Amino acid sequence: MSGPTPILKPPALVEGDTIGIIAPASPLPDPAYLARGIQFWRSLGYRVRTGAHISKAAGYLAGSDAGRLADLHQMFRDPEVKAITCLRGGYGTLRLLADLDYNLIRCHPKILVGYSDITALHLALNKMTGLVTFHGPMLYPELGSEDLPPYTRENLCRALTVASPLGSIPPAPGLPQPVTINPGQAEGIVTGGNLSLVAATLGTPFEIDTRAKILFLEEVDEAPYRIDRMLTQLKLAGKLEAAAGIVFGICTRCGETGSNPALLEVIAGHLTPSGIPCFYGLPAGHLAIQATLPLGIRARLDAAACTLTYLEAAVAPSSCRQLAR
């Protein structure tokens, strides 16, 4: 049996770099988000290049699988593009995994940012190539909004440009206080993302590996019984007990209050008996105010203090770019 895939860090962004925008999942509900998202990156001193198929739509998909896949491959192939950000989530990324050119991506490591349905790409790229990716804001609904919170912008920019350990994810203004489920500390590589997509990888070549890792989970618009079902699926697959620690982001509109049982009761029911260090309420997920979380590098979880602290850099110094050609 082969060992774990070596960690592959993309080079850090520097001013003047080109950002590629792709749509691997669903189309935009409002094209104004694309224009505003492009202006967001330009206002920070970056150039922007959009995928050839980015404005396509085929029902709930942003065009055909072949077109969406071609845009992703072209952005990794293009030597001028230094980072790739996703238009939005929705649905469709899982459909691309079997046909991705993982050798191309391995030979051209670049920053990839997105969340929600993009979790499928995070898990596949980390498992098949070792590439560190970033669970962070997309054009819809964050970067293309008319009022992007400073917390979201500052955390995104720092994660993509600083070639040193990020340290602790800072508390976010206006969010509820996090809640300890099981106290304790754990260290490990951070993996995970959207709970629905994590569960969807089970039984596939891209199945999440949680062994001795920090498992991050978040969700949106799911009733507590559906959260229960997906956590039960992960438990039956041995994914919860294998983790060194578990941290939940914010599960938005998932019955936090007034449900029977409530969301935290469901989560605690699965995790309290295990004794695995765990807390709920990291400022990440389907939120206007959200941190950018590197996936694929080591961090320390302190469930009593409700902190996640990154112990290594997520990006390589920009001087390492010649190695990514």
TrEMBL record:
Annotated GO MF terms: carboxypeptidase activity; serine-type peptidase activity
Any Gene Ontology biological process: proteolysis
Positions of the catalytic residues: S116 (nucleophile), E218 (charge relay system), H286 (charge relay system)
Keywords, sorted A to Z: Carboxypeptidase, Hydrolase, Protease, Serine protease
InterPro entries from the UniProt entry: Carboxypeptidase_A_C_sf, Class_I_gatase-like, LdcA_N, Peptidase_S66_N, Peptidase_S66C, S66_fam
Spans through the membrane: none
Enzyme nomenclature, EC number: 3.4.16.-
Span of domain LD-carboxypeptidase N-terminal: 19-136
LD-carboxypeptidase C-terminal domain boundaries: 187-301
Enzymatic class: hydrolase
Alphabetical list of CDD domains matching this protein: Peptidase_S66 (cd07025)
Family of the protein in this entry: Belongs to the peptidase S66 family.
Protein name: Putative murein peptide carboxypeptidase
Lineage of the species this protein comes from: Bacteria, Bacillati, Bacillota, Clostridia, Neomoorellales
Gene: ykfA
